[in-house]
Amino acid sequence: MTELLSNYVAGRWQNGSGAGTPLFDPVLGTELARVDATGLDLPAAFAFAREQGGQALRALTYRQRAGLLGAIVKVLQANRDAYYEIATANAGTVKNDSAVDIDGAIFTVGQYAKWGDTLGDLHALRDGDAVKLGKEPVFQSQHLQLPTRGVALFINAFNFPSWGLWEKAAPALLSGVPVVVKPATATAWLTQRMVKDVVDAGVLPAGALSVVCGSSAGLMDALQPFDVASFTGSAETAAIIRSHPAVAERSVRVNIEADSLNSALLLPGAAPGSDAFNLLVREVVREMTVKSGQKCTAIRRILVPAEVYDAAAEAIGAKLAGISVGNPRNEGVRMGSLVSRAQLNAVREGLDALAAQTTVLHDGRDKPLVDADPEVAACIGPVLLGARDADAAQRVHDVEVFGPVATLLPYRDLAHGIALAHRGHGSLVTSLYGSDDAALAQAALAVAPSHGRVHVITPEVAQAQTGHGNVMPMSLHGGPGRAGGGAELGGLRALDFYHRRTAVQASPGVLAALGL
Q1: For residue 507, is it within any domain?
Q2: What is the rounded CA–CA span in Å between residue 491 and residue 111?
Q3: Which of 270, 271, 403, 496 could pair with 347 in a Cys bridge, judged by C-beta atoms 3.0 to 4.6 Å apart?
Q4: What is the bridge-based pairing of β-strands 125-126 and 140-147?
């Protein structure tokens, strides 16, 4: 039997009492490890984190906690090669795709270490200036932000086992809030290994970082009023979390990142072969193939003027035809596998759901895999769909296929294109392509209300732009409506989720004595 990955809770490593759920290599089909959380005393584990981890973290200043993040960066960098090996084995990603997850995580923690150092030797943050409460300034109100006295529970998705942990944990730990992470079972190995390395290095106080591998049963039940929970995954599970008594009755603060039908929009006037047209084509192909399209920020709908629809289909298809798919250990492979056969089945079902309202413009499903058995490997080539009647193709605006799949849609005029972007009912990101600054600015403002991020690409930023689907810690990550209504990152704005705001009403002397 393969190794059973331990859980780290209540300051010690603990095995579940069950046989465990196996984790597989999605290309070779071999069992890698098992995870199990059966029988863990979760209320006691959360209490330990609150009382021991939380108290120890809050005793430190923001600058000192930033120092802890810096120490975490060194641990992760020292073990980086091992993380790449785990990602290849457990997630089926090629090296460049593993970097998005692993190096992106290390970069994010490093950024929060730098930002946290600028907050200084404080234990609370001032929120705005003091204001007088009457005609005379003898009695004033000062808003403060203080770390919540609870734990931060992260229930994460399978596609980013590294970044998904650290983009949340960095602002939580900097805020002084202990973390309990529950990684998605299919790819839990990398998360568990990273936690283990940080724990073994002894850089954090006991109880500051915990990991539960296996079932999520009982985790929400263990939450108390001052805890916070962050979930990344399906809208269906998000609805269950929102209706849980911890949220509905105990007012646990919750952040949700759910489904997102992100779009890319080419502005009118960008002729085939123009710089803006070529930038759209390049970005669409990248977003369809990086991590095999398994990104919550990936482009799902491609909106182009009707007159360039055929040219766009040809150009995107030509580039997709050059994508080699198969075993990520083979240096000739550009795109690896999905994370599991179950995910492969889900992608196939999604394609079936869209088939009635779309046509196939490029089909990579029949292309032979490189160094992989199609009966075993969870691999699928990229598929570009199209719908000439973008208004009638309702399913394209409702169904997200979480894999290397996108749909090309024509629009009549820019107003129609923007209306189609809004048909996603709330998305994490949309990207705009063109060369007219004024037109792009107006389009950005027009699409912004239903998107968490608007990524504008012009020829002059072609080399500097960070990518439609790349989530940078400086910018907001989240989106309204279908995308979950949540907000993460955005620089130090991320600390808001882990703090409680209060108003202290007192004399100027008392307010000055707060030391802020």
Answers
A1: yes
A2: 9
A3: 403
A4: antiparallel
Strands (E), 293-418: 299-305, 359-363, 383-386, 405-411
Whether the Cβ atoms of residue 301 and residue 427 lie closer than 8 Å to each other: no
- Residue for token pair 């080399």: 463
The single-letter code of the amino acid at 480 is P
Whether residue 187 is found in the same domain as residue 272: no
Q: Are 94 and 101 contacting, i.e. CB atoms less than 8 angstroms apart?
A: no
Integer Cα distance of 388 and 69 in angstroms: 50
Give me the pLDDT at residue 371, please.
97
Instruction: Give yes or no for a contact between 406 and 300, defined as CB atoms under 8 angstroms apart.
Output: yes
> Exposure string (b/e) for 96-124, b if CB count within 10 Å is 16 or more?
ebbebbbbbbbebbbbbbebbbebeeeeb
DSSP 497: G
- Contact present, 421 and 447 (Cβ < 8 Å): yes
Q: How far apart are CA 65 and CA 498, in angstroms?
A: 14
Q: Residue 247: which CATH number?
A: 3.40.605.10
Return the closest-CA partner of residue 425 out of 479, 389, 353, 475: 479
What range does the domain containing 437 cover?
262-477
User: Residues 241, 363: one domain?
Assistant: no
pLDDT (tens digit per residue) in 201-255? 999 999 999 999 998 899 999 999 999 999 999 999 999 999 999 999 999 999 9
Pair (289, 160) in one structural domain: no
Q: In this structure, are 354 and 463 located in the same domain?
A: yes
Query: Do residue 238 and residue 318 come from a single domain?
Result: no
**How many domains, the chain?**
2
d(CA 73, CA 192): 16
The C-alpha atoms of residue 380 and residue 43 are separated, in whole angstroms, by 42
Q: How far apart are CA 295 and CA 101, in angstroms?
A: 10
pLDDT in tens, 379-421: 999 999 999 999 999 999 999 999 999 999 999 999 999 999 9
Catalytic residues: 257, 296
Question: What's the CA gap between 507 and 466, in Å, rounded?
Answer: 48
pTM: 0.96
The token pair that represents 154 in the structure block: 């992260």
